[in-house]
Amino acid sequence: MAGLHHVELWVADLEESRREWGWLLTRLGFEHAASWDDGDSWDLGGAYLTLTTSPNLNSVSHDRRAPGLNHLAFLTDSRAQTDAIVREASARGWTLLYAERYPHAGGPEHYAGWIENSAGFKAEIVGPRAEPGGTPSATT
Fold it and tell me: Which domains does the chain have, with CATH numbers?
């Protein structure tokens, strides 16, 4: 079956990325798989995400609105997990985007929070459409 194998993010500040992304990936259930001088790898069931120091640190900083990657979206096990990650994010170097419309900035049927780290990378934390048994969470 075809699927996502890995994503590699080239970063300017590896230590900062390790703190911010490392926290988020751990909260999402990824396991730290490897470290080397210029990077880290995080695994989730075979697909993995790698943070690597960019070989071109003279270029402009990451701009998610420019052509290229806008954001990564991660599915959580529950709306409660989505809420917890979004609630904890600001203490971990992330800023909540569209806070006034959380958790339905993507529309009434979409339960998600968008967060942006200090380098300008955006992640979408997506909760299931409904909780197990079809019951909505207490925050809807």
Answer: 1-55 (3.10.180.10), 69-140 (3.10.180.10)
Tens-digit pLDDT profile for residues 12-54: 999 999 999 999 999 999 999 999 999 999 999 989 999 999 8
**Cα 139 to Cα 83: distance, rounded to the nearest angstrom:** 9
Tokens for 136, please give them: 């909505």
Q: Tokens for 95, please give them.
A: 């800023």
pLDDT tens per residue, range 82-115: 999 999 999 999 999 999 999 999 999 999 999 9
DSSP of the chain, one letter per residue? Answer: -----EEEEEES-HHHHHHHHHHHHHHTT-EEEEEETTEEEEEETTEEEEEEE-S-TTSPPP-TTSSS--EEEEE-S-HHHHHHHHHHHGGGTEEEESGGGTT-TT-TT--EEEEEETTS-EEEEE--SS-GGGPPPTT-
**What is the C-alpha to C-alpha distance for residues 39 and 48, in angstroms, rounded to an integer?**
13
